[in-house]
Amino acid sequence: MDVTNIVRTALQEMIVPELNSIKEENAEIKTSLGLINKRLDDVNSHLVDQSRRIDETNKRIDETNNRIDNVRAELTAKIDATNNRIDETNNRIDEVRAELTGRIDETNNRIDEVRTELTGRIDETNNRIDNVKAELTDKMDEVRTELTARIDATNNRIDQLTFQVGKIAQEMERIKREESVTSDILTRLRTLEQKTANL
Q: Which end of the chain is more exposed for a tag (fewer CB within 10 A), N or C?
C-alpha cells in the first residue's frame, strides 16, 4: 500500500466515526432545534396574544385616561364655576356687610344724637320742673300764709258773731220776758175795764 492509501485509511478510521457522531449530534441538535423552534413559536404566539391583550389593555387605559381627562376637565370647569360663584357670593356678603355696617354706624350715630338731644331736653325739663316746683312751693307758702291769715280772720269774725248772737239771744230772752209782763198787764187792764164797765 502506498502512503496515500494508508493515510486515507487512517483518516477514514479516525474521522468517519467522528463524522457519524457529529451527524448524530447534528440530528439531535436539529431535533432539539425543532422542539425549540416549536416552543419559540408557541412563545411567540403567546407573546402575540399577550401583546394583543396588552394593546387592548393599553387601549382601555387610553380610553380610561381620556375619560379621566374629560372628567377632570369637566370637574375643573365646574369647580372653577363654583369658585366663581363662591367669590361672587363672598363679594356680595362683603358688600352687604359693608352696607349693614354703614347703616348700623349711621343708626348708632342717630341714636347717639337722639340720646344727646333727649338728654338735653330731659335736663331742660327737669330744670323747668325744679323751677316750677320751687315756684309752686313759694306760691303754696304764700297761699298757706294767706289762707291761714284769712282763716284766723274768719275765726275772729265767727267768735265775734258768736258773741253777738249770744248777746242777741240774751236780748231776745229779755224781750220775751218783757212781752210776757206786758201781756199780763194788758190782760189785767182788760179785766179792770170789764169790771168798770159792769159797775
A: C
Among candidate residues 129, 149, 153, 131, the one with its CA nearest the CA of residue 141: 149
Question: pTM of this prediction?
Answer: 0.37
State the DSSP string of 121-177. HHHHHHHHHHHHHHHHHHHHHHHHHHHHHHHHHHHHHHHHHHHHHHHHHHHHHHHHH
Q: Backbone phi, then psi, for 30, in 5-degree steps?
A: -60, -45
Q: CB count, 10 Å around CB of 164?
A: 10
C-alpha cell at 97: 356687610
List, as one string, the DSSP characters of the chain.
--HHHHHHHHHHHHHHHHHHHHHHHHHHHHHHHHHHHHHHHHHHHHHHHHHHHHHHHHHHHHHHHHHHHHHHHHHHHHHHHHHHHHHHHHHHHHHHHHHHHHHHHHHHHHHHHHHHHHHHHHHHHHHHHHHHHHHHHHHHHHHHHHHHHHHHHHHHHHHHHHHHHHHHHHHHHHHHHHHHHHHHHHHHHHHHHHHHHH-
**DSSP one-letter code for 199:** -
How confident is the chain (199 residues) per 10-residue block, as mean pLDDT? Answer: 68 69 78 83 84 89 92 93 93 93 92 91 90 87 88 85 78 74 72 65
Write the CB contacts of 1 (distance below 8 Å, at least 6 apart in sequence): 9
